[in-house]
Amino acid sequence: MSVAKRDLGERKVTTHRLMEMKQRGEKISMLTAYDYSMARIIDEAGMDVILVGDSASNVMAGNTTTLPITLDQMIYHGKSVMKAVKRALVGVDLPFGSYQGNSREAISSAIRVMKETHADFIKLEGGSEVRESIERILCAGIPVMGHLGLTPQSINKFGTYTVRAKEESEARKLIADAHLLEEIGCFALVMEKIPATLTTRIASELTIPLIGIGAGRGADGQVLVMHDMLGITEGFSPRFLRRYANLKEIITGAVQSYIEDVKRQDFPNEKEQY
Ligand code: KIV
Q: Where are the beta strands (DSSP E) in 94-143?
């Protein structure tokens, strides 16, 4: 569907609308954002869902994994994004260590995120292992998006960022977890880096939307990390990543021109001073 034909009015995207989009076969667009200025651009461009991902740990804070980011830091990013967004549905990732310990900790983390950021939903990683935490959060009326397949918060267990669920037993567990998360009430799932055939199968079995990243064309929507698709990050070129711009080159060019103009006393000129 062309951007012109889509409903880009002020009407806020809701979890219910995502379900309707799945039902009518309209693909869901989702992108990460972590700050006010970028969130405003992304929202005005017509994105359906904006995720304040814990990938902020990598792309904003320069960590090599998502593990170090804290709940306070996620809330800071969430608040900044929420100040900008008018239309998109906005979710905030619960960071590593804020929900796996027990369901009491999980509900208090989720409530802090919702109260302090005013986000629309939270996302967390894992299946049956975190069932109790998800159920508790859902009981408080907080919409939950699940995240299965490659779950970066478990990188130390996996050891690598390679494709998940290629083996029969892992694929079976993934399918069971996807059904479980739908049954207990998650409104959508992210599936990261799994075989395309598995995505197509699970998406057709579930009624809730399945948003893929490196999960193929069969998903009900796609999500990417903003810095990756805009060409700001370097040294990260997985097969699934399409770069829509090379902002690093554009920014470098602009910054170098500015340096040059200052050095040769071209900036500021007569008109650019008071
Ligand atoms: O943190 C993140 O950016 C994510 C997306 C990759 C889905 O979880």
A: 121-123
